[in-house]
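seq:
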Amino acid sequence: MNVLAGGVIKRSMGKVFELNRKRVFSVIEARQVLPIVRRVTEEANLRIRGLLSKLEAVKDRDAEKTKEYEEQINRHVSEWQTKIAKLGAEGKGLWLVDFDCGTGFYCWKYPEESLDHFHGYTEGFQARVKMRDSKTVVSEPKLETPLLEEPPASF
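struct:
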């Protein structure tokens, strides 16, 4: 059961996740949020791919349907960016997510399996570099505000 109190979602398992808050992540925290980001991104990608197929089928024959599908695609992209922002990260491009780490961004792009890249604040995706510890398995620390394994149902 999820209980909302002051912008904080509390789950029956005792884990807590604050929504709608831009934040600075440690690499461990960003990696803990990544499965949620990945699932949200996969779902949005599937919806948009379906709409793109429909759009391709009508684009030269039905202007009204073309406009309708384009609006739906734009709405889904916007909803995806909103969900990413609610998790405290930034949706920078289509399926590209940056996690602010205080000195730059941990950078993830769908469909990458893990969070392995970094770039500075003034650099973009093209300048990202692989982190040295990207293959290091890190045990989960005790956080003051542990993170949920999945977003709340209303997310």
